[in-house]
Design brief:
- By secondary structure, this protein is mostly helical.
- It has two domains: 72 residues, no CATH class; 35 residues.
- Helix content is 52%, strand content 3%.
- It is built from six helices and two strands.
- Strands 1-2 form a two-stranded antiparallel sheet.
- α2 runs antiparallel to α4 and α4 packs across α5.
- The longest helix is centred in the middle third of the chain and has 24 residues.
- It is globular, with a radius of gyration of 18 Å.
Length: 136
């Protein structure tokens, strides 16, 4: 599928080596399910939901002047404008998830530190087993 089809997928269940479905809150809801729930609820700094922000962008002059892409250059500017909004709201929801699931936030931080260490040829300091076992 090409970018010009502008398909949007739900966030992955995994962030790096961390499985969002393995972190549970007091209600038994996993972090991935909560993330999907928050995507429909969070507001940006202007107080808009993701759908409101997208609708506003689609009505804008910059969107109307944008390109759709082609079979050779699949990602047009319109697709990128909407994707930017989609990613911004995913980031907002993920920040909330990290607050609600502190163990998950720690695991994500440790996994990121490991990834950076491995990239630079340094010793990995966070045992992967502890990152992967959030609720044990």
């Amino acid at each position: 599928m090409s970018d010009s089809q502008a398909q949007f997928s739900n966030p992955s269940e995994d962030v790096g080596n961390v499985d969002l479905t393995s972190a549970k809150n007091g209600k038994g809801q996993d972090a991935h399910d909560r993330l999907l729930e928050l995507l429909g609820q969070v507001k940006d700094s202007a107080g808009r939901s993701m759908h409101e922000a997208m609708a506003e962008k689609i009505q804008s002059d910059s969107y109307k002047r944008g390109t759709d892409g082609s079979s050779c250059y699949s990602a047009g500017s319109r697709v990128n404008m909407i994707r930017d909004i989609h990613h911004r709201f995913q980031d907002i929801a993920m920040r909330q998830i990290k607050k609600e699931f502190p163990g998950l936030a720690d695991a994500l931080r440790a996994d990121k530190q490991n990834r950076i260490a491995a990239k630079h040829g340094r010793e990995v300091k966070n045992p992967l087993e502890s990152i992967l076992s959030l609720n044990e």
